[in-house]
Amino acid sequence: MMRQDVVLLDRATDAETGLMEKLEAHRLGRYHSAISLLIFDGAGRQLVQRRAAGKYHGGGLWANACCSHPLPGESVADAAVRRAREELGIAPSLRPAGTIRYRAPVPAAAEPDGRLIEHEHVSLFVGRHDGPVEPHPEESDATEWLERAALLAAIGAGGFVPWFALYMRTLPERPDDWRAEADYGYFDLM
Description:
With 190 residues, the protein is of the alpha+beta class. 21% of the residues lie in helices and 39% in strands. A hairpin with a 6-residue loop joins strand 1 (5-9) and strand 2.
């Protein structure tokens, strides 16, 4: 498997400080850059995916449409477009929807203590897609379109990654109210 690096950031300034191999960054809980896509269809339903069982963390849990990391030297906007295509086989219209920062434990069956630590500065993107979704089997083993009430009930019942539950508790209810310049804060869920 090819080495995958994440872009490390300074927690106080969000300035880039270097690179680290992705799994090691999650083992150590190092603060790094990430992206998350929240995709809606024309009926206002939100796309969720169940992470493939073989994922390095959060396997089998439900999440937002797409979450990943920009490559070194890649803009977060370019990473969002790339990962929508790679993970879901889609090319949604996307716009920046603000940032959120958090630290949270995430289940990781292959790790000795059964968890990894997400410590991320997330650039959020909201988009629209009407049409088929073709998830890559190494990324996702199921997708669903859910109306907000059903989605909130499902999150309340469990089985979702902690970052998506945080997004749904923190972001304004209407995606039209999500703004590129919005900073939704820092949350320590440890």
